Amino acid sequence: MQEPILEALDVFYRYPDGTGALTGATLTIERGQKVAILGPNGAGKSTLFLHFNGLLRPEKGQIRFHGEVLRYDRSSLWQLRQRVGIVFQDPDIQLFSASVRQEISFGPLNLGLKPPETQRRVEAAMAATGVSSLADRPTHFLSHGQKKRVAIADVLAMEPEVLIADEPTAGLDPAGARHIMDLLTEINGRGTTVVISTHDVDLAYTWADVAFVMAGGQVIAGGKPEEVFEQDELLVKAELGKPWLLEVHQALLRGGCSGSRSDRPRRRKELLEMILAMTGR
Amino acid sequence: MFTTDSYAYTSPLKKIDPVEKGAMTVFSLLVALVGPAPLTPLLVAIFWGALTVFWARVSGRAYLKLYLLPLGFLVLGWFSLALSFSPLTGSTAGYEVGWLPAKTVWPSLGPLGGTLSIGPWQLYFTPAGLRTAGAMTARSLGALSCLYFFALTTPLTQMVGLLQALRVPTLISELMLLIYRFTFVLLDVATAIYLAQSARNGYARIKNGYFSLGQLVANLFLKAMAKGRGVFIALEARGYQGELRVLPERLEWRPARLGVLLAADVFLLALGWYLTQGV
Q1: Residues of chain A contacting residue B240, judged by C-beta atoms under 8 Å apart
Q2: Under DSSP, is residue B188 helix (H, G, I), strand (E, B) or coil?
Q3: Cα–Cα distance for residue pair A251/B164, rounded to 1 Å
Q4: Residues A189 and A138 in one domain
Q5: Are both A144 and A158 inside the same structural domain?
Q6: Helices (H), B200-254
Q7: Same domain for A273 and A202
Q8: Can you name the residues that pair with A35 across neighbouring β-strands?
Q9: Chain B contacts of A97, Cβ < 8 Å?
Q10: In the predicted model, is pLDDT for residue B265 greater than 60?
C-alpha cells in the first residue's frame, strides 16, 4: 500500500518576473490516496501542481514519478501527461472546444487512441461526471458548476493514474462543491490517486487521507488531517483556520467532558454521536 | 447578436451534415442571384424564409428582426440605384430648391415622376433605375434568406468541419474555432470590467467615459494575453501536439432530402422565368 507515486524533492522555482514561487518544497504522495494541499494564496500550490505534470521544470531539486526522476524530452512528457492529469482552477481556461463531447475527446485523441476507444472513454467520462445530457451543448452555454464537471471529465477521459485538481470547489455553491467532492471520492474509489488544493479546512479535514500545508513556497507540514490540524502554531503560520469539528471537540474536552484526545471526530455524524454519548451518560 | 448562435445550437436541423446544408445554401444562392429578378429571388426569399421558420423553428419575430440589420444598407443601396441626378438645364435654372411635379418626364411613374431640383442639380427617378433598384433589393433578400438559413441551423463547429472537408488549411479553421471560443471569454471579461468601472461612476460623464473605455480596452488586451498563455498551458497539460484534434460529430446525410430541396429551387427558377415571360 505504501508506495510513493509522486514526489517533490527540495524543489525551487522562480517565475520569470522574479517571484520565487517554490523555495525548497518537499512532499511525497502515496498511491491510491486522497490528498489535500492547503495554504494561503501564493503559497505555491498551483506552481507545484504544474511541476507534477511537467509543465514547469524545477530550477533546483527533482520531481519523481513512480520513483523515477522526470525527464523533459517530448516523448517522456507525453507519457507523463497521460498518467498525471491536471484539472485547472478556471474552467474557462481549460475548455477550448465548442461542444462538450468534442472537448472531452481532445485528451484521448492526443494519446493516440483510435476514435472508437476515444468514443468509449468520452461516454464513460461524461457518465461518471454526470454531464452526458450536455454532450452536444457548446461549452460557453454551461454554468460554472457544469464547466467544472466537464473540466474533470476532460482529464478523466485520459484515464490518468493521478488526477490533480486545482481548487476544485472554488466559486461553487455548497451543493455544487459537495457534488464535486463526492465525484472526486468516487474517482478515487476506482483506484485513481486524487490530489486537490483548497482553502477550505473543513472540507480538507473530512475528505482527505493526507493533508499537506504549504506556506511561502515550502511544504511546512504533512500527515493525517487530524494530526496536522491539531498543531495550532502551524495553522497560524499558514493563515489557516481550524476545522470546526476539531474546535468543537477540543472545547468539549476542555469543558470537562470525558473522552480521549486521540479519538477525534472526522465527520459531523461522528461528533454528534460523541456528544450524545457524553450527555446521555 | 449571439442569439443567432444559440439558434444554431438548438436547431432541430443541427444533425444535418453541413455539406448537405452548404450545398442547399450555395445552390439557392445561385438561383437567387441569376434567376429573373425580382420575382425569382423573392420566391427564394419566401421559400427559405418559410423553411427557416417552420422547419428550423426559428421564431418568426426573431427572424424578421434579423432583417433589420442589413435594412440600412438595403435602403441606402436602393436610393443610390433608383435616383438619378444631372445638372439642371438652362431655362429652369432660377430655382434654389424646387419640385417639378411634371408628368412630362416619366408619366408612367405617376407621383414618383417628378423632379427635385436643388441649386444647379436635379434629382429624379427613372424607370430603369427603379427596376435595377428593385432587382437589387430582391436579390439581396433572396441571398440573405439562404445565408440566414445556413447560419441559423449550423453551429460554428460544423462550419469549421465543412471548411476542413473543403481542405481549408487547419491553421485557419483552428484559428476560427479558437477566435469563436474566445469571443465569449473576452465578452465576459469586458462585461465584468465595464460593470466594475460603472459601479465606480466610470461612465458618469462623457469625458471620464472615454478614459474608462480606453482603460477597458487596454486591460482587455492584457487579460486576453494572460488567458491565452493559460489556455496554452492547459492544452499542453492534456498532451497538445500542435493540432486540436476532436471527435467528429455524428451527422446525417440524406441525398433524397437534398434532391427535393434542390428540385424546389429549380422549380422556383422555372416559375420565375415563366411568370416573367408572361408579363
Answers
A1: 110
A2: helix
A3: 67
A4: yes
A5: yes
A6: 206-237
A7: no
A8: A195, A210
A9: 157, 177, 181, 244, 246
A10: yes
**What is the C-alpha separation between A86 and A263, in angstroms, rounded?**
35
pLDDT < 70 regions, chain A: 1, 259-262, 281
Judgement on whether residues A213 and A113 belong to the same structural domain of the protein = yes
* Res. B1: pLDDT tops 50: no
Report the number of distinct structural domains present in chain A.
2
Question: Which of A82, A104, A140, A152 to mutate to test binding with chain B, by most B CBs within 10 Å of its CB?
Answer: A140
Nearest CA in chain A to B230: A93
Q: Three-class SS of residue A72? A: coil
**pLDDT tens per residue, range B183-224:** 877 887 888 888 888 888 888 888 888 988 998 988 888 888
Residue with cell 438595403: B74
CB atoms closer than 10 angstroms to residue A154 = 31
3 state DSSP class of A27: strand
Rounded Cα–Cα distance for residues B76 and B133 (Å): 10
Structural domain span for residue A65: 4-242
Q: How far is CA B47 from the centre of its chain?
A: 17
User: According to DSSP H, which parts of A111-221 are helical?
Assistant: 115-129, 144-156, 174-189, 201-207
Q: Distance (Å, rounded) from C-alpha B274 to C-alpha B270?
A: 6
Cis peptide bond N-terminal to B36, omega within 30: no
Q: How far is the C-alpha of A214 from the C-alpha of A45, rounded, in Å?
A: 7
Calpha distance B263→B277 (Å, rounded):
21
Cell of A103: 472537448
B177/A98 touch (CB, cutoff 8 Å), yes or no: yes
Place B38 in a pLDDT band, splitting at 50, 70 and 90.
Answer: confident
Examine the pLDDT at B145 and tell me if it is beyond 90. yes
Distance from CA of A104 to the nearest CA of B (A): 8
Q: Which of B180, B234, B240 sits opposite A88 (nearest CB)?
A: B234
A165 DSSP β-pair partners = A87, A196
Strand-pair category, A84-87 with A162-166: parallel
